[in-house]
Protein 1
Amino acid sequence: MKTVIVPVDFSETSVHAAKYAAKLLAGHYGATMYLYHSYSKPVETANAKGALESLKTELLKETVLNIETLAFEENDFVDGLEKTARHRNADLVIMGITGKSAIAQVLFGSNTLKMAQRKVCPVLIVPEKAPFKPVKNVMLTSDFKNTLESTPSGLITNFLDMVNANLHIVNVDSEHYISLTEDYEKEKQNLKELFKDYRPEFYFMRLYDVDEAINLFAESRNIDLIIAIQKNNSFITKMLTSSRTKALAYQSKLPIMIMHE
């Protein structure tokens, strides 16, 4: 990954995400991390640029990384961020999310979820409770439907190569019994072939609550990061759009990377 954009509004949540991003990218000399901030009034330009440079200086005290700053006047935060990501051909956007209060969620958390729904590039959501640790075990959630057409294998393998992590592919379905159906076995073999160089491990869980199952598995297997593929009518789409299932993003202690099919 060469171009990573990290939007900051200088809140504790966004600064935490920036620190996480800097540590994640540290040592990857071909990568550039852009600290991005948008503001609504021209008089804010100088303060915005100054604050970004201060944050850059702070991050560089602890990290060896190429960091640039971007400050733009924008009417809409998410639209401006999307435009910047497209113009810079971003490989990844890293954003924070907070569960502290309803107001905090509206001001920053909702923008994070909105950006995750845009089909620009993967978005890595960093919860405020997520401390940085090296990414050694990655969980890929899959519905095991049309896997060859819907799995962005190139994006996933690029990230796995960057962090040198083990891959755990997980499916949760209330219909699972002792053995897999023929359709599930076929899709499993498709994924096994897609990720053959990474020797993925497969897990099939018979549970009704997807959010609970993912969190339980992550804890039991020492998962460091979750990758979820957003598909139409998939559980991840529902997670991003319904108030009940937003809990996974808001309450998780693990970073969640949202990719699109």
Protein 2
Amino acid sequence: MNHLFEKKILICGAGTLGGNLAETLGRTGFKKLMVIDQDIVEEKNLPVQPYFRFDIGYPKVKALSQNLFQAAGAEITGIHYTLTEGNGDKWIQSADLVLDAFDSHASRKAVKKICKKLNIPCLHIGISPYGYGEIIWNEGYSVPPDLKEDPCEQALSRPLVLLITAVAAESILRYFQNGEKENRSITLKDFAVLPLL
């Protein structure tokens, strides 16, 4: 199974979903992670994203790379850049898998289009303002419109975010192990915790 961890994964977005997913994959043992994002760490990010107060003002990709190296020895290539339809080919073409965790319609549309053109598998990870998350492969993905408010910044969104990233990580392992591409919807309401008998 060690060969799985040599796969090149490009994570598009280092915010709530992308940052937490990068942390999960880095701590799991994936060795060839690239993360692309244009944002810097802000104080409002701290409750739901894997950053610290001393990261405020730094590019998210730089802070994420440093924090994961210190925590788990994971080496992440951080790309502080704005990915667009016009420049994304050079980042996407070398990946074995692309994970789209961007938070804008234009960015998600660019990733979807480039991955389809280059025939690179892509898994889109998102959270809705209605309390559920989705993990959808490129073939069945429709790019959602931009939202007025970021659902990742809602009160108590972190438990759902961590559940979404855990399910996404498991989907990534299944894909690399046997090519399985299963779309999933995740809600805390439907999540069952059963008592031991």
